[in-house]
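FAQ: What does the model actually see?

It sees only this:
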Amino acid sequence: MTIRHSFIAAAALAVATALPAGAQTAPASMTISTASPGGVYAIYGEGVAGVVSDVVGIPTSTRQTQGPAQNLILLQGGQTELAMTTSGPAWEAMNGELELAPGKKYGDLRVLFAMYPTPFQMIALEDSGIDSLDDLAGKRVGAGPRAGTGGTYWTRWMDSMGIDASLQYGGIGDQASQLADGRLDAIITAGGIPHPALSELENTQDVTIFGMSPETQATLLKANPYAVPFVIPEGTYKTPGGDLDTVAMWNFVVVDASMPDDVAYQVTKAILEGNERMVATHAAAKGTVAENILQDTFIPLHPGAAKYYQEVGVEIPAAIAPGSEG
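And it is asked to produce this:
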């Protein structure tokens, strides 16, 4: 099905379609860097690895990490071929503002496809009485891995809002067990929906899954231009009695500019045309469709990926077209 959008740079299209004729060496195998067990990244990454291995024919495995920031460090260092990241860490890496690599700009970061939005989510045991962010003051709160999206941004945001909680860091699966055991009072995280750790908790515990107040949402959006408003719709989880307002960041699979053009093209094509298989891996992959590449407003497209988008009729804005990095 052809997808049309309203803006295009003609010069960018020429660059996107003119892949080098010379042979480029495809890697014998690849890894995709994901995050800690228990979250959507780990599950989604398994889906990507399976599709790439089966369809592209390059054996691909997953690598568990602390999340997007570490994934970008690994990618820049040549220690992984595919990396999953959110828009915030990608922006910071490109501008030399990543906490794990301050001052080190990643100018060769390239995007293949959009994954899904990552909403920021909150959960507590029902008998704790916690049903808002303000209630977390003085509480023991799990924030996921320190270098993950949740750990990174919740740490900043809680401080900026003046909420003095005792933030604790670790794998989200482990922290879900700690909440169930009463060793944590709440968990604040970031991940696709439904988040497997939150779903498991509400299947085994009496919990409260809550959203943000309009004032908190507006404050965070104003301070973080790469974040977007988001609604977790009623029915995503069993316990909330309606929609939950929060903020989100989009996720992307990114690669280094050195990836051969034909490999980038084949991976992009395989994932986007294998959407049914990806959704069967995790429901969040319903956002993994070609037109959602337009959710990217600043990471340059890899030329191989750009060739695929032109073939299916997605008109690429000049801001992310190959060559925009110069």
